[in-house]
Amino acid sequence: MPPERRGKRGKKAPMESAGSNIDDLPVGVLQHILGFLPAWDAVRTCVLARRWRYLWMLATGLHIMGNEDDDMEELRESVDHLLLIRGIAPLETCELRFDGIADGFPDSDVRRVILWFRHAIQCQVRVLRLLLTGNCDHFDLRDQHLVSRHLMKLELAGVVVTESFLDLMGCPKLEQLAIYGSDLYAKKISSESLKYLSIASFRFSNSFRTHIHAPSLVSLLLDHNRYNTPVLESMPSLVDASIRIVGNSVDTCVYCDSGDCNSCQGTIPGNCNCILLEGLSKAKHLALTVESKTSIFKRDLRRCPTFSKLKTLLLNDYLSLGLDLDAITCILKHSPVLEKLTLELFPKGSHHKMEIKGSYSPVQTIAAISEHLKMVEVKCEVVDERVYRVLKLLCTFSIRFSFE
């Protein structure tokens, strides 16, 4: 028999920790990881080992990016070759991003990028982004029609689109749409499934008014509109809405503060009874910011709907003061369950230095406003005559303030 060991026990071989080597991961996990890399970096992994040779072709993400330092002809050939090799393997995410290069695209390259975009649709992509920076007014999607049973999120920047593209009824699973810095020449944006809509730094037509039909919408952001403000159709599921209108809208009217808004009817093409407020009337949280003498709110307030679910409301300086306090009075009287009101009474580009807080404390029941109103915040630089007018109005509704 072998002699018995004494003293220190024999050292055991160290155990390798599970999953310490990336090659031990399942193929599906590796394809998911490769999907986060830029396309060319994912392709380069084919030289790592035999097992990696074709993994990039089935990566769940495809990120094609170009910038002003790239040679367009080389980029064009590389992307064409890449898409030809990978075929129509399913994609979770596809991003086509061109920074500072798209404004130099000839028409042939615009058509080629659109083909890449449509190739992603054929790959049953769920999240699709087409993002262009620079002067991209000619990047035209107006003749395109989007149909996909798989697309869930779409993000566009720097493009021109019309209703043929924004008729999204052919995308029954689309829930998120974000459009930035684009021209939207559409008479209607339509989707039965859309839940989140964000449109910023955009331009609508100046000859007709776009209607937004999205009855399933939960969240809405409209920021920095140019030309005609869109008509919001019924949104019964709306929870959060933020609307910001700037001074270069054709809905701007020099007469809207004169007390006779009939002067500005000609600036509102169409025969809409209510442009914004009716569509926003089911929101639970609402922020309204106007940076011009717009006729839209003056007109809408005449037909002010009941905000039956509204819990929190934010109004900016112009809506609070520029409409002779009509906006505050009207919306307060039409918000039966309002809990928090915030008024930002300071000019654009500045910040508030004072915050005055108040609450609804009626000495007797006043049915004119919500009995649920728990907090009123007035943010301002200084309590001047303008701010005093607002505080005086709110006090008539039995709102008491404390200064901080």
Helix content: 10-25%
Percentage of residues in DSSP E strands: 25-35%
* Order of secondary-structure elements: HHEHEHEEEHEEEEEEEEHEHEHHEEEHE
Number of strands: 19
State the secondary-structure class.
Answer: alpha/beta
The biggest sheet, with number of strands, parallel, antiparallel or mixed sense and barrel status, is: 16 strands, mixed
The N- to C-terminal Cα distance equals 90 Å
The low-confidence runs, each spanning 5 or more residues with pLDDT under 50, are 1-19, 254-271
Give the CA-based shape: elongated
Mean pLDDT: 80
The total count of helices amounts to 10
Alpha carbon gyration radius: 28 Å
Write a compact overview of the structure shown.
The protein has helices at 27-34, 39-44, 72-86, 107-122, 163-166, 277-280, 295-302, 317-322, 326-333, 385-395; strands at 61-67, 93-99, 127-132, 153-157, 160-162, 176-180, 183-185, 188-190, 196-204, 211-213, 219-226, 231-232, 240-245, 285-290, 312-315, 340-345, 354-360, 375-380, 399-403. With 404 residues, the chain is α/β, with parallel strands linked by helices. The strands form two sheets. It has a 16-stranded mixed sheet that branches.
